[in-house]
Amino acid sequence: MSDELLKLRNRIDHLDEEILARLSERARCAQRVGEIKQGNAYYRPEREAQVLRRLADLNPGPLPADSVKKIFREIMSACLGLEHPQKVAYLGPAGTFSESASRKQFGSAPTFVAMTTIEDVFRAVEAGNVNYGVVPVENSTEGAVSVTLDLLLASPVKVCGEINLRIHQQLMSRAEGIGAARRLYSHAQSLAQCHEWLNRNLPHLPRVPVASNAEAARMAAEDPESCAIAGEAAAELYGLNILATNIEDDPNNTTRFLVIADHDAGPSGLDRTSLVFSALNRPGAVHALLEPLARHGVDMTKLQSRPAQSGLWEYVFYADIRGHQRDAPVAAALAELGERAAFLKVLGSYPVAAI
Ligand SMILES: O=C(O)C(=O)C[C@]1(C(=O)O)C=C[C@@H](O)C=C1
Which reaction does it catalyse (predicted)? Predict the structure, then answer.
């Protein structure tokens, strides 16, 4: 071994010891924070977002800000686990994009529980069987997930976080090449998202829609004459080889998830608030409801309507606005909106996705 290599490795050993000592000190601080919280919510998404944003700003390089955030996400995940072990429910089975989104938000320390339906995720949170739930709410190409919107309206849960996940689709199989494949499994939505790539590269391979991407990967693991389209996590879970990476037709394809709980988040300085309201059935009613937002300088980042369950041709509106409900302009605008609306429910304020 060259002298220089030896010296650098000794230096790395020494730095690792320092990092470990500091990490242990940090973990002891977090343990003490946990004792002070005494059973109140241990997970504080607003604080985690502040920590990640601050370190990304301070980052001197050469590590990219994204790597720094991922490392500190894991550190906070382990510290939170020391304070109090957490359980997070998501739309299963294991290996789906919902699981990847959950891990992106919570790191790897919690116990992740796969549920069969989005409704089951809500029920698990409502019943207190888990601390948090992660549900998809919209996809940049497919649009809103209406089941989630309807459940948000009916359920007492609060929104305490958002997660944006880039959806990258991978072609995978047990074999090391595609030559022997006789069929391709995937969820119908993923087949649609890779339609052009498939037409160009595998026009004659029969496409078989199945219940989820993870199920497709599981089937491909059992059937050597097949391949699957799924996320990287599913390939890892089922020990499959990735034969072609990022084959989705739209490279910006992103799914937005919400974190639901029995509490929302405190102000972080860069927040969003989700609400749902209904308008009286008169001309100009929606405009009158939104007017206070504009007057108080509150930006709306989303507005979506859904037919109300209650009556024919009545609508409820889902809006996301910038800011926390405790910020003065947001509080004033919401108070006025509440007076004018037939119905208003604030679903929660939470930090804008920090990672
Ligand atoms: O600051 C807190 O409230 C903590 O519990 C510490 C800590 C952290 O490790 O920084 C851990 C968990 C919380 O979700 C937020 C931050």
Answer: prephenate + H(+) = 3-phenylpyruvate + CO2 + H2O; chorismate = prephenate
Q: Which of the following is catalytic: 72, 106, 122, 257?
A: 257
Q: Give me the percent of the chain exceeding a pLDDT of 90.
A: 91
Cα gap 319→344, rounded to integer Å: 11
Q: Determine whether the shortest distance from the Cβ of 261 to ligand 1 is under 6 A.
A: no
Q: Which CATH number is associated with domain 86-167+254-261?
A: 3.40.190.10
Rounded to whole angstroms, what are the CA distances from 260 to 36, 257, 263, 339? 24, 10, 8, 27
Q: What is the ipTM of this complex?
A: 0.99
Domain pair 3-82 / 170-244, same fold? no
Domain residue ranges in the chain: 3-82, 86-167+254-261, 170-244, 271-351
State the pLDDT at residue 311.
64
Average pLDDT over residues 20-32: 98
Is 132 near ligand 1, meaning CB less than 6 Å away? no
CB 244, CB 177: distance < 8 Å: no
Q: Is 51 in the pocket of ligand 1 (CB under 6 A)?
A: yes
Q: Report the pLDDT value the prediction gives residue 312, as an integer from 0 to 100.
A: 57
Question: Under CATH, what is the fold of the domain 170-244?
Answer: D-Maltodextrin-Binding Protein; domain 2 (3.40.190)
The packing angle between helices 65-83 and 3-37, to 10°, is 50
Specify the CATH number for 271-351; select among 3.40.50.11270, 2.40.30.20, 3.30.70.260, 3.90.120.10.
3.30.70.260
pLDDT digits (tens, 9 = 90+) for 89-112: 999 999 999 999 999 999 999 999
CA angle 114, 115, 116 (to 5 degrees): 125
Predicted TM-score of the model (pTM): 0.94
